[in-house]
Structures are given as structure tokens and as C-alpha cells.
From TrEMBL:
Biased composition regions of type Polar residues, renumbered to the chain: 738-753
Cross-referenced SMART domains: HAMP, MA
Compositional bias (Low complexity): 725-737, 784-796
Record's protein name: HAMP domain-containing protein
Source taxonomy: Archaea, Methanobacteriati, Methanobacteriota, Stenosarchaea group, Halobacteria
Region (Disordered): 725-753, 769-856
Length: 856
């Protein structure tokens, strides 16, 4: 930001403090002046707005005076019509009452009339020499016939007997076609109407005619003088004037506003009798409840007098502040600029080499301290120059000494670089000579480097020996795995031959068993058959019992469904009853609506009969509303009835569906119950059959014991032969899997051997004299020896022992009870084979990973 400003400001200004100070002072003065003038203008605008609001409030106050006067007159008229005397209809009493009432309200009521609404004839009045309302100048003779007893009507302003008045009238409730008319003089409100000062306050009606003012009316005996009636009352305000058109733009009683005009006012107030000829004025307007609008005109000098004073003094204060800033700034700036210029000249002399310049001054402010600072800097500069010359000589001597050290270090570094290059090329037998340099750091580097090479040489030698041993061990593992694989293959072939022999033996034993069965007696056949039948009967009985339990659960579930169905049916029945009740209620509502409609029809007939009487139409309107309401109720009732019929139909359909579902559930329940009974009978019959067969079997077994024992021995031998065949097949499969695993072990061992050879070739390029650590190598080789050969050999021997041993011991072998036991045994053998294969695969992979690690 500052760099940008410096680039914009010309250099001749930047070099002169006095010019920069003058520009800053000028900007400050302009800123203060602008702020002052703007603030003064804002204050002026604010005060002007307040003035406009005050003028608008004044117009509102005058409008309230008129509204209060109007409300008071309406209340008096309404209360007069509701008095017992007026309601009695006695003409003489009413005449006496209105006369006394005028005397009581003297000065407030101009006249009181009790008139016939049709003929406008005055039945009772306080006026003299008048017979009808037209004789009094009453302007609403045509409208009084439609006057009602519940609201007070009002006329526009008019003149009666030379007095401006407003008449209020209302129909009486005591007798037909009579009304009370009360006229009120406008002078009643004059004591509070108007504004003090050079202003004109008017009230105009909806047609823009002046009905009230504060200039000619005056107060007391001068109020509403003949001059006002003759020259001003009901005179039209200028129709095209902006104030009038704006004030009459809305009929809302709260319509108000204010504005300033810089032109001549309306001609009606610029001439006699108002003589309001201001060139600039403030106007405010406010509407009233009775339709009149108050217009307030105030000259700008009177309205804005305080505003002009504030504006004048504000501008003067701003100009004085700017002038004061200029004078003070000029005095301070000139003195400061002169001191800075003198200091600049002295600094220039010191810059040219004159260190004897005098920086003494009598000032003690910041500029004086700046003089003292330059004086101290001059003394310090002299001292530093002397010290710098001495330091230069010392630095020259030190430079020569450092040059000698650098040459010595360079020679030692050259020698050490040659040793490092030989070591980098693979010769780990080289060493650095620590005595090649007298520098302690270089000697430490040589010693540490020699120790590092010794450790690297020993490590490389150990790695070389380890790689050789790994390669040898890998070859041995490969050879051993090949032998084991070959042996496993031979074992597999032998086991396959054993399996084939066992199969042949099994077939032979089956043939012998068949022959012995053919030679057995009829009793032996009956015993065997009875055993099978007994077994089947037992399982049939058990199955029947299980089925009976499951059917019992199904029966319970069906019973629960039936209970839920009953609950749903009950809910539907209840819903159907409630819908019926709602339907009855709707019928009652429809009946009531029909009766209401008939009542409304009768009311219309009665209203039409009495239309020629004094009724005001209210009864007919009520009858029409009742009829309309009854029709709406009937329409809504029909719509509700239609919707309830739809709901009833949907409910019936749902009930039918539930009934059908209930019948189906009952049928299912009956079928399940029958099935349970049948299964129970089957279980009983199977149990009886089992008991009978067991008795037969016991008898026949006693008769054919010897034959059965022989057949059992043959069956046992056949079963053992069959198991031997199956186990032999499992052993053959395991042997094949073991052979495959050994093939993978052999492949992994070959890979390990290749990696070891690669490592040895990589280490051969290093020349070493150190001896490898034999103990570390032995430990590494021992940890790497248990590859796959011992584990594989152990697994093969265990498999052979477990699979072959059962075939040689007939007394310990038990035939599987059923097919599930055989499947479980087969699954166990398969899982065991997979685990062996996984174990065989894991070791070579780990060895291979270790080999790659060494290679890296």
C-alpha cells in the first residue's frame, strides 16, 4: 500500500517535508470542512424532517378536534331519538321537550326538528316561521325518507339563517315515518381550531370546498362572521393544486402527510381574506372520520426558522475550524521544516566525509533528540572506523593462518577420498591413515571410517557364509522333498493296490454272505426280516409322534388365528353398528335441515306479506340466510351420507373377506386336527407292530442263533473290508495332496537356492579379510533348517498309522451307525488334508520372503 502511494507521489514532493506537511494540512482542512458542511447538511435535513412531522401532527390535532365534535353530535342526536318522550309519539310533549333541550344546549345546538320522513313536514321544531325541512335549507330532504333508527346520518355543511351548520338526523322508533333532525353550528368547535403563527388552517369537504378556517371565523362574538359566509364558506380550493389532489387521493381517515412547496400557494388563500403570499411554505394535511380534510399552511421562515439558524452557525463553525487548522499548521510546520532542513544539511556534510560537523541545538523535543542522536552516532562512527582498521589487520593475519590449515585439510581430504573410492569399488580391506593430518576432526573421521569398514567387512563375510549355507540347505531340502515326494507317490500306489485288494476281498465276502444267506433256514430269513420291520416300525412310531407334536403346534396356531379372526369380526360388527348410528344421525340432521328449509320458506312468505308495512327488510334477510344455511346443511348431509355408504360398502366387503378367511381357517384347523388323529393312530399301530415283530424276532433268534452268528461274522468282516477300502482311498487322496505340497516345497526351495546364489554373487564383488561370526551363522542356519521335510515325513507316517492300523485290528473296529457318521468322518479327513496342505505351503513362502529380504 505504502509502496503504491510512493510510486504515485512525485519525487519533488517526497523530498520536501514542508511540502508534504502542507499537503497533509490542506487535506486535513478539506476533510474537516467537508465533514462540517456534510454534518450541518444532515442536521438541517433531520430538523426539516422533524418540522414536516410536526406540521403533520398539527394537522392531525385539528382533524381530531373535528372528529371529536362530530362524534359528540352523533351521540346527542342518537340519545335524543331514544328518549321516552320521543318514543311515545306524543307531538305536544315532543314540542315541549325539544324546546327545553335547545335552551339546555344553548350555543351548541342551532335547532331541533321532529319531522315526518315522507312529507318533510315539521311536527315539532325550535325554529320559527318554518313548516317543512326545505324551509330550513335542509339539503337531504330526499334522503331522510330512508333514514334508519339504528344509525345517525349527517348532511354536508350548509347555511341556515346566515349561520354555517351541519345537520344530523335519525329515524325514531316510537312512531312510524318520523325522524329527529338536529343542526349544530360550526362555531361550536372554533375555540380550539387553528394554529398560532404565520399560518392558515382550512378544512375542505370531499368536493374541495372550504367549510372551516381559522382566519375569518375568529372566536366569541366574531366567530363565523358574515365576511366568512359571504367570501369564503364553500369556496372551492384550487382543483389542480398538488396539495389538494394529494390530500383527497384517499378516503381513509388516517390518510395524512406533509410537503414543502417552493412556489406560490393556491389563489384562494393568497388573496383576501387570508393574504398568505409566502414564496416558500410547508403544507400538511390529515383526513377526518366525517370526510373533511384539514389543510395547514405555514411559511418556511416560520417553520424552518431554527433550521436556518442551525445551518448558518454550522457553516460558520466549520469555516472557523478550517482556518484555525491552517494557521496552527502553518506555524508548527514552518518551524519543524526549518529544523529538519538544517539537520539534513549537516548530515549531508557528514556523508561527504566531514566527521567534525557540529550537531548542537537548543531544542529538547524529538528533533532535538534527533540532533543528539546524530552527534552520538558521529562519535561512535569515529570509534568504529578506528576499530575497523585494527580488525582489518587482525583479519589479514587470521586469513593467512586459515589458508595454511585449508591446504593441509585439502591434502588429507584428497588422501581420504582415494580410500573411499577404493571402498566404494568393493575393496573393503583399505583403511585411512589417521596420522595423515594434524586436525583432530580429520583424525576422528579416519578412525570412525576404519571402524565402519571393519564392521561392514565382517557383515559382508557373514552374509556370504549365510548365503552359501542357505543355498546348501535349500539343495538339501529340495533333494529331501524329492525323495519324500517319490516315497509318497509309492505309498499312494501301494495304498491304491491295497484298496483294490480290499475291494476284491469285500466282493468275495459279499458273495460268501450271499451263499450263507441262501443256505440259512427259513427261520433266519424271518429273523432278519423281523428286525428290519421292527426298526422301520420304531422309526414310523417316532415319526408319528414328531408329526403329532408339530400338528399340535399347527392346531394351536390355527386356534390363535381363529381368535384373532373373531376379534376382527367383532370389530367389523362394531364398526357396522357405529356406521348405522352415524347414518341415523345423518337422517336426523337431514330431517332438521328439511324442517329448517320449510321454516325459511314460511319466513320468506311472511316477509313478502309484510313488505308493504313498516318492516325494514331484516326479517326477510334472516329468512334468506336460514334457507341458505339449511340448503348447505342438506348438501353437506347428502355428501356425508354418500361417503358413509361407500364406507359401509367397503366395510361389508371387508367383512365378507374376513368371513371367507375364517371359513378357510376352520377348514384348515379341521384338516390339521384330522391329520393329527390319523398320525396318532399310525403311531399306535406302529408301536403294536413293533411289539409283535419284536416277539417274533426273539423267538426266531433263539431258533437260529448259530446261523445268525455266522452271518454276523461275515457281515462284520465285509463291513471291515468296506471301511478298509474307504480308508485306503482317503489315504491315497492324502498322499496325492502331500505329493502336491512337496512339489510346491521343492519349487520354493529352488527359488530360495536361486536367491541365495544371487546374494552370494552380489557379495563376491566385495574383498574382505575379516572372519565371519560362526555362532551367528549357526543360529541363522538352525533357524532356517526346519523347512518342510520333517513335517511332511511326520504327517505321512501319522496318516499311514491312522489309516492302516484299523484294517489290521478287527476287534476294535465298529461299523458306522448310519450315513451321517460316514459323511462326518469324510469331512474330517478332507479338512485335515487341507490343513496339511496349507501348512506345507506356508513354510516355503516364509523362506522365500526371507531370501528376498536378504537379496534386497
Amino acid at each position: 500500500m505504502l509502496d503504491t502511494v510512493r510510486g504515485i507521489v512525485p519525487s519533488f514532493i517526497r523530498r520536501s517535508y514542508a511540502m508534504k506537511f502542507g499537503i497533509a494540512l490542506l487535506l486535513l482542512g478539506l476533510s474537516v470542512g467537508a465533514i462540517g458542511f456534510v454534518a450541518t447538511a444532515q442536521i438541517t435535513d433531520s430538523v426539516e424532517e422533524n418540522t414536516l412531522e410536526d406540521q403533520q401532527a398539527i394537522a392531525g390535532q385539528q382533524a381530531n378536534i373535528i372528529d371529536n365534535w362530530n362524534e359528540q353530535n352523533e351521540r346527542r342526536t342518537a340519545s335524543t331519538s331514544n328518549t321516552p318522550v320521543v318514543e311515545s309519539g306524543d307531538d305536544d310533549e315532543i314540542q315541549s321537550y325539544v324546546t327545553s333541550l335547545q335552551l339546555e344546549l344553548s350555543g351548541q345546538v342551532e335547532s331541533i326538528h321532529y319531522a315526518d320522513q315522507e312529507t318533510n313536514e315539521l311536527i315539532a321544531t325550535t325554529a320559527s316561521d318554518v313548516d317543512t325541512l326545505e324551509d330550513t335549507g335542509f339539503p337531504d330532504s330526499d334522503q331522510i325518507e330512508s333514514a334508519r333508527a339504528d344509525s345517525v346520518e349527517r348532511t354536508e355543511a350548509y347555511v341556515t339563517d346566515g349561520t354555517p351548520v351541519v345537520a344530523y338526523y335519525i329515524s325514531t322508533s316510537g312512531s312510524d315515518d318520523t325522524a329527529i333532525v338536529m343542526t349544530f353550528a360550526l362555531e361550536d368547535m372554533m375555540s380550539n381550531f387553528g394554529v398560532e403563527g404565520e399560518s392558515v388552517t382550512l378544512a375542505v369537504d370531499r368536493d374541495g370546498q372550504i367549510v372551516l378556517d381559522d382566519t375569518i371565523t375568529g372566536t366569541g362574538s366574531d366567530a363565523l362572521s358574515n365576511d366568512f359566509v359571504d367570501s369564503t364558506f364553500l369556496t372551492s380550493y384550487d382543483e389542480d393544486h398538488e396539495l389538494l389532489t394529494t390530500a383527497l387521493a384517499s378516503e381513509n381517515a388516517s390518510h395524512s402527510g406533509s410537503m414543502t412547496f417552493e412556489a406560490a400557494p393556491a389563489s384562494v388563500i393568497s388573496e383576501e381574506p387570508y393574504n398568505f403570499d409566502a414564496d416558500e411554505y410547508v403544507a400538511a394535511y390529515h383526513a377526518t372520520e366525517m370526510g373533511w380534510t384539514v389543510l395547514v399552511h405555514t411559511s418556511s421562515d416560520d417553520a424552518y426558522g431554527f433550521v436556518n439558524t442551525v445551518n448558518q452557525y454550522g457553516n460558520m463553525a466549520t469555516a472557523g475550524g478550517v482556518l484555525l487548522i491552517g494557521l496552527i499548521g502553518a506555524v508548527i510546520g514552518r518551524n519543524t521544516a526549518a529544523s529538519i532542513d538544517r539537520l539534513t544539511r549537516k548530515v549531508g556534510q557528514m556523508e561527504e566525509g566531514d566527521l567534525n560537523v557540529d550537531f548542537e541545538t537548543k531544542r529538547i523535543d524529538n528533533i532535538g533528540r534527533l540532533y543528539g542522536g546524530f552527534d552520538s552516532m558521529q562519535s561512535e562512527l569515529k570509534q568504529q572506523i578506528t576499530e575497523a582498521e585494527e580488525a582489518r589487520a587482525e583479519a589479514e593475519r587470521e586469513r593467512e593462518r586459515v589458508q595454511e590449515i585449508n591446504e593441509e585439510l585439502q591434502q588429507a581430504a584428497t588422501t581420504y577420498c582415494g580410500v573411499m573410492e577404493d571402498a566404494a569399488n568393493g575393496d573393503l580391506t583399505v583403511r585411512m591413515d589417521p596420522e595423515a593430518s594434524d586436525n583432530d576432526t580429520m583424525q576422528t573421521i579416519a578412525t570412525d571410517f576404519n571402524e565402519m569398514l571393519s564392521e561392514i567387512e565382517a557383515t559382508v563375510e557373514n552374509l556370504n557364509q549365510f548365503a552359501t549355507e542357505v543355498a546348501i540347505a535349500s539343495e538339501q531340502v529340495t533333494a529331501s522333498s524329492e525323495e519324500v515326494r517319490s516315497a509318497s507317490k509309492q505309498v499312494s500306489e501301494s495304498i491304491q493296490e491295497i484298496s483294490d485288494g480290499a475291494e476284491n476281498q469285500y466282493e468275495s465276502l459279499r458273495a460268501v454272505d450271499s451263499e450263507m444267506n441262501n443256505l440259512s433256514t427259513t427261520t433266519e430269513e424271518i429273523a432278519a426280516s423281523s428286525n428290519e420291520v421292527a426298526d422301520v416300525a420304531e422309526r414310523t412310531a417316532q415319526t408319528g409322534r414328531d408329526g403329532r407334536e408339530q400338528l399340535q403346534e399347527a392346531i394351536e396356531a390355527c386356534e390363535q388365528l381363529e381368535e384373532e379372526r373373531d376379534a376382527v369380526v367383532e370389530e367389523f360388527e362394531q364398526l357396522r353398528d357405529e356406521v348405522g348410528q352415524v347414518d341415523d344421525l345423518i337422517d336426523r340432521v337431514a330431517e332438521i335441515a328439511e324442517q329448517t328449509n320449510m321454516l325459511a320458506l314460511n319466513a320468506n312468505i311472511e316477509a313478502s306479506r309484510s313488505s308493504s308495512g313498516n318492516d325494514d327488510g331484516g326479517f326477510a334477510a334472516v329468512a334468506a340466510e336460514v334457507k341458505e344455511l339449511s340448503q348447505d346443511v342438506k348438501s353437506a348431509t347428502d355428501e356425508i351420507s354418500n361417503r358413509l355408504e361407500q364406507i359401509q360398502e367397503q366395510t361389508d366387503r371387508s367383512a365378507e373377506e374376513v368371513d371367507r378367511t375364517s371359513e378357510e381357517i376352520e377348514q384348515v384347523n379341521e384338516l390339521v386336527t384330522n391329520a393329527g388323529s390319523a398320525l396318532e393312530e399310525i403311531a399306535e399301530y406302529a408301536q403294536k407292530t413293533n411289539d409283535g415283530v419284536q416277539s417274533i424276532s426273539a423267538a426266531t433268534e433263539e431258533q437260529a442263533a448259530s446261523t445268525q452268528e455266522a452271518v454276523a461274522m461275515v457281515d462284520e468282516v465285509a463291513t471291515i473290508s468296506e471301511e478298509t477300502t474307504a480308508e485306503a482311498e482317503n489315504v491315497a487322496a492324502s498322499a496325492e495332496e502331500q505329493t502336491s505340497a512337496l512339489t510346491e516345497v521343492s519349487s520354493s526351495a529352488d527359488d530360495l537356492s536361486q536367491q541365495a546364489v544371487t546374494l552370494s554373487e552380489a557379495l563376491d564383488r566385495f574383498e574382505t579379510d575379516a572372519d565371519a561370526d560362526e555362532n551367528a551363522s549357526a543360529v541363522d542356519i538352525d533357524s532356517a533348517e526346519p523347512v518342510a521335510e520333517p513335517a511332511v515325513a511326520g504327517e505321512v507316517s501319522e496318516s499311514d498309522d491312522e489309516d492302516v492300523a484299523p484294517a489290521t485290528n478287527e476287534n476294535t473296529v465298529v461299523a458306522p451307525a448310519d450315513d451321517e457318521a460316514e459323511l462326518a468322518a469324510d469331512d474330517g479327513d478332507d479338512n485335515g488334508g487341507d490343513e496339511d496342505a496349507n501348512d506345507d505351503d506356508g513354510d516355503p513362502q516364509e523362506a522365500t520372503d526371507e531370501t528376498f529380504s536378504f537379496g534386497e
